[in-house]
Amino acid sequence: MPDGAPKTPFLILPADIMSQPKTFGELKGTPWGTPALQLRTVKDEMRANLMRRLEGGEPLFPGIVGFEDSVIPQVVNAILSKHNMILLGLRGQAKSRILRALTSLLDEEIPVVDGCEINDNPFAPLCRFCRSRLRQQGDDTPIAFLSRVDRYVEKLATPDVTIADMIGDIDPIRAARSGLNLSDELTIHYGLLPRSNRGIFAINELPDMAGKIQVGLFNILQEGDIQIKGYPIRLLLDVAMVFTANPEDYTARGKIVTPLKDRIGSEIRTHYPATLEQGIAITQQEAWTQRGGKVRLSVPSYIQEIVEGVAFHARDDKRIDKRSGVSQRLPITVLENVVSNAERRAILSRESSIVPRVCDIYAALPSMTGKLELEYEGELKGAEAVAQELVRASVKQIFARRFAGTDLQQIVDWFDLGGSLKLAETASARDTLEQLAAIQGLMEKAAVLGVKRKDDPPMLASACEFILEGLYASQKISRSEERGYFAPEKKRQEPFFDEKSGRARKNFN
User: Fold this and answer.
1) 240 and 109 both lie in a single domain
2) What does the pLDDT look like over 123-134, one tens digit per residue?
């Protein structure tokens, strides 16, 4: 098969099925019959389409955020080099999404021999069935077209995957019905890999696959031959193979057999969002927050930052297993839960707008705890307690950033003078503001967040609660389930003189 390919390949565009060639003879008269496209491989096809996009300045992988300067350039290099590749990364790092996005680099459709199990190229058939058919029918051989979506095959590697699943097996029923010998190639029931011929074959979590299956894979990668029930069969499959794996499995446990590892052209490391802004962009893109209906949804920017900050703090927390990671699905599901809790409050209080508050983030703890793999220290404390501390840490960080240089002492003094306030999670914005109005200077400080006093009660209530929770997270005031927000207990003042010795104490508060 030729290695070269034209820079700008001919693409079969969607057309009326009546205009498509239906036989091999008709196909020869189309651009598919030109020498440049007759024997073009999948990797040549992906390379040519990628070059066309690069030349035209088109987006390569829409929806992939945060990898523009790291992962995507390496993927591009692998495709330009016509490499099989493996993506190494912890869970929730968009590995599978990248693999599925590779289908956009395939032609919109390609011609195949109609009825072939392995999508044979009419100009270079592999299986015996298609070779015999072309000899017998010649130019009258029927042709079908395969879309790019149908050319992607994905398999999750598990220990129970067999050679029959991946490569194929002998079908005795087919042999009996056709009167064929079991050693005949026509008795083969092909597995996933041959059925992905002329397409992309992806395997997720490769290290979990049994070693003998991996051996079968690298034999195809290197030699192009397979053995089914002891019968050697030569199949020069045209497949772009891509894999994913967890770095811990890949390097420490050594579950990928060395010969297969050696035949994977490019090893590409993925990562979590590098900045809070990148994480927020991903979460906004993936989270289901627009619920429809007549009620308007407004998610304050500081709520989005707190939710994303929980994931960032969790990834740095020593009580959480670093080998497992903290998936980007955590802030996505948390934000969805936050919106749902605010939506519930709006329904109960019959409000016309949904505005999440900090209390809604605490209500979303069930969407966090299941995504945290705890170390021993974390297990002792409990997933819910660890999650609550992560929320407080995130609130403290975002609060310090938003209110840096802002004097909030008047609010703290109100609590120091004996004030306390308990807010109900399901209370309407107006009821909440009636309670908050007692705290001198609180509502005026909401202007720092861009919220005016009377324009939007739900937004004002959310901003004021964020200020109180920020003061609590910064240990300026206290909070409990029973009392709500109140002044912290003062440290006991020890006397300056020791009554027994009559001397001044060296250490006193």
Assistant:
1) yes
2) 999 888 888 899
